Amino acid sequence: MEQIKGTLNRIELIGWLGAEPEQRFTPAGVAVCSFSVATRRWIGRGENGERQVSTDWTPVEAWERLAERCGQSLCKGSRVRVIGSLHTRSWNDRETGQKRFKTVVRAEEVMFLNARMPEAPSTETEDVASTEDIPF
């Protein structure tokens, strides 16, 4: 992960996919795989004293070979560990002209904690893919 002196942009998530990943290709033919990772956190106690949990959905994008690996190996319900950085894009809304923003985690490494692996007999397979193109 490349850093600029005095800054750090690093995100690490461990959670589950809530939907099938979406794989697409840019007009230049670059693979992109998008998925959301659900993580849970404690938010306090309810009136009855029970701890309350909230689920956060974080959008993730993987690019190039990492995108291809994610598209092949992940499915709804997969448990993953994602290491990456935050990226924010902006654009002007065509209908209203208002400036819009979207922040995603750009994955640099994805560990498949129980991914769909057709050749593996068990769903408890652990596999790692990264932007450094670790062979599999």
Which residue ranges are poorly predicted, with pLDDT under 50 across at least 5 consecutive positions?
118-126, 130-136
Within CATH, the superfamily carries the name: Nucleic acid-binding proteins
CATH topology: OB fold (Dihydrolipoamide Acetyltransferase, E2P)
How many DSSP-defined strands? 7
Instruction: Characterize the main sheet.
Output: 5 strands, mixed, barrel
User: How is the largest sheet built, in terms of strand order?
Assistant: 1-3-4-6-5
How much of the residues is beta strand, in percent?
over 45%
The helix/strand order is EEEEHEEE
What percentage of residues falls in helices of 4 or more residues? under 10%
3D shape: globular
GO molecular function: single-stranded DNA binding
Pfam families: SSB (PF00436)
InterPro entries: NA-bd_OB-fold, Primosome_PriB/ssb, ssDNA-bd
Organism: Kouleothrix aurantiaca
Give the key terms.
136 residues, mainly beta, OB fold (Dihydrolipoamide Acetyltransferase, E2P), 1 helix, 7% helix, globular
Structure write-up:
There is one protein chain. The chain is 7% helix and 52% strand. It is built from one helix and seven strands; from the N terminus they run E-E-E-E-H-E-E-E. It has 136 residues and is mainly beta. It has one helix spanning 64-73; strands at 11-17, 22-25, 31-45, 51-63, 79-92, 99-112, 127-130. The chain has a single domain (11-130), classed as OB fold (Dihydrolipoamide Acetyltransferase, E2P) (Beta Barrel), CATH 2.40.50.
Secondary structure elements and their pairing?
Blueprint: E1 11-17, E2 22-25, E3 31-45, E4 51-63, H1 64-73, E5 79-92, E6 99-112, E7 127-130
Parallel strand pairs: 4-6
Antiparallel strand pairs: 1-3, 1-5, 2-3, 3-4, 5-6, 6-7
